Amino acid sequence: MSRSSVGTLMAIAFLLVPHPAPAQDPPLAGLDAYVERVLRDWEAPGIAVAVVKDDSVVLERGYGMRQVGGREPVDAQTLFAIASTTKAFTAAALAMLVDEGRLHWDDRVADVLPGFQLSDPYASREMRVRDLLSHRSGLPRGDALWYASPFDRAEVLRRVRLLEPASSFRSAYGYQNIMFLAAGELVQAVTDTSWDEFLRTRIFEPLGMRRTRTSVRGLEAVGNLATPHGRIEGAVTPVAWRNFDNVGGAGSIVSSVHDMAQWLRLQLGEGDYRGRRLLSDSAIREMRTAQTAIRTGLDDERVFPDTHLRAYGLGWFLEDYRGRLMVRHSGSLDGMRTHVVLLPEEELGVVVMTNLAESRVPQAVAWYVVDQFLAPADRDWSAVLLEEARRDRERADSAERRLETERLHGTEPTHPLAELAGRYESAVYGAALVDLRDGTLRLSVGPSYVGTLDHWHLNTFRATWDDRYLGRDFVSFDLDRMGRVAALDVAGFGPFRRVRPGEVEP
């Protein structure tokens, strides 16, 4: 047989034998291009992403820079604040104690944590461990107690008894950080080991999360640190790391996507990590069981048409997404934002971090990744969320224009500026000091809220804080029935009572 005949027969045989269709692009083939577009769309300096599928880390990568205009790139080891995604770690720490029989989800907090007290006696007595972890305390957020405040964890927790309820106990969902701080302090009450040390030895070390820590102290020495950024007067601007150690179990962890990928593996492994069980599967189920229903609004329905039900578990948001259970949490602190997503039925987990807080970058990237694994959808998450951001800006601009329209021009304060100066006290937030310097009023509330008061109208002023990231707030001086300056009301804090020389402070 000639060589040409053999070739012809081989060609015919090849055509007759069935062959598999050409392999499709892997789910993450378009991720790099998408993330680069997200960086441009949002003007984000940097993004870090990790993806876990079927107990394997299939991607961990950094994009962009640690600081805008800088030359140090973000990589998988770059440290970011994970903020409120810390809450799931605190829930896991308590779950370990439940597994060991040293604590129960329905133990009364006051029986375990000495001195725990709220303004509502019933809530103080009946608050259970699971209530701390499910945002149904009835308290307002009260974040000024810890955010940029001089108080340590113990003092924040002591002062929470002075917060007036926003709703009745267990009647509604109400996001509350201080209850998670309390949950972290439960760890020490039960074990005689601090929340920080417990997480280090019981979670971080077993998972190999070597760069993860619960404090901002000493971060510069650790290296490979993302710089926080804020959008200040329209420009993406570097801001300093703020010390938020005092929020503890609610949001003080700093980590990288490399380390967080191991946390995802533990979660997707139902408490098992590389053959070592750290959490029982029953504890995992309890944390993913709805504890508090969350009402959805029109904005939610517009952005998430595939989501019908939403709830909070223990340290996690729970919702349906394209027919699957989605377990997720976001976190945001000064200049940083993190988003963690788990789809347990798909054995899929995603963590995304960015060093620009005023953005929805992590959600845009995380949901893109989820869609690629479920089956690529037509939804451009970055475009959808940019539109929501535009709506938010329009609402903010409209509110600002309304303020200007309602402003009473040509008015003056009822008292000379010198009579407005003085010391004001709040039992909740401490002292507010008003000084008159070179004809201008200066206000100090704690070490961080320090700024200049510009007259707005009547006895209302607008505070422009020296820390530009804090923005501006309205401040009003209130009079008593005799026409004397009696109180100072600071937006975000509430009233401070005037303390006159010789008076006893509250």
Write down the CATH class of the largest domain.
Alpha Beta
Give the terminus-to-terminus CA distance: 109 Å
Strand order of the largest sheet: 2-1-14-13-12-11-10-9
Helix content: 25-40%
State the CATH architecture of the largest domain.
3-Layer(aba) Sandwich
Q: Please state the CA-atom Rg, rounded to the nearest Å.
A: 27 Å
| Proportion of strand residues | 15-25%
Provide the structure class: alpha+beta
* Poorly predicted runs of 5 or more residues: 1-24
Instruction: Spell out the CATH superfamily of the largest domain.
Output: DD-peptidase/beta-lactamase superfamily
The major beta sheet can be summarized as:
8 strands, antiparallel
Characterize the overall form: globular
How many beta-strand elements?
A: 22
Domain module count: 2
If you consult CATH, what is the topology of the largest domain? Beta-lactamase
What does this structure look like?
With 506 residues, the protein is α+β, with helices and mostly antiparallel strands. It contains 16 helices and 22 strands. The protein has an eight-stranded antiparallel β-sheet with strand order 2-1-14-13-12-11-10-9, with helices on both faces. An eight-stranded antiparallel beta barrel has the order 15-16-17-18-19-20-21-22. Helix 2 (31-42) runs antiparallel to helix 14 (361-374) and helix 3 runs parallel beside helix 8 (177-191).
